[in-house]
Amino acid sequence: MERYIKKLIYGGENKWVDFKYCINDSRKIARTLSAFANTEGGTLLLGVRDNGSIAGVDSEEEYYMIEAAARLYCKPEVPIIIKQHFLSGKTIIEVKVIKGSNRPYKAKGEDGKWRAYFRNNDQNLVANRILLKLWKKRESKKGVLIKFGKPENLLLKYLKTNKSISLSAFRKLAGIPVYRAEKIIVNLLHCSVLSMNASEKGYTYSLFRNESTIKDNVNKLPGVNKYL
Known about the structure:
By secondary structure, the protein is an alpha+beta fold. It has 2 domains: 2-127, Methyltransferase, Cobalt-precorrin-4 Transmethylase, Domain 2 (2-Layer Sandwich); 130-227, Winged helix-like DNA-binding domain superfamily/Winged helix DNA-binding domain (Arc Repressor Mutant, subunit A, Orthogonal Bundle), CATH 1.10.10. It contains 8 helices and 12 strands. The strands form 4 sheets. The protein has a 4-stranded mixed sheet, with helices on both faces. The longest helix has 13 residues, at 26-38. It is elongated, with a radius of gyration of 21 Å. Residues 218-228 have low confidence and may be disordered.
């Protein structure tokens, strides 16, 4: 077990692993739990500094704050598995989060608002409206209607010569309202025609594959009606 924890620490923080030196606010931990549950799951190690050095924790107090984060500051409650480890004479708490089946999992902020987070490399970012709609669509059993009309073709043509595009830029390019631009991007993300690029600065969208494989990719999707 010691080798397992050392391996996680030596691998550094990434999409599936996060370090926390200590807990002084359960709401901050709730963001990480939300992000892991909404993405692909992950492991939170408490008592480890960002550089991988071991600080250790007071296990009794940390247990209480972790449980408060999962139960009181996450909606719905995020299922977690908590384990205690001893390394270099110090206590490390491992919090395992499994990818949730009831997205979005939201965390309550200091302002009292509930926000859904997702894991992007080693960061927890707030999910935008497009991502929230994409999660809902992917968990729905309903079929999807994909229509490659003028806005879709304008978008694909633009991305053939440009690396990426924002929602607002696409809306202006196609001359369509925001709700329609969002719907088009969500559908194309759902079909893996587009990929999302996220950072603290915002969101942009790029072609997931080259154009020669896009139609083949869409045609292989079950339950999808296409008009190409």
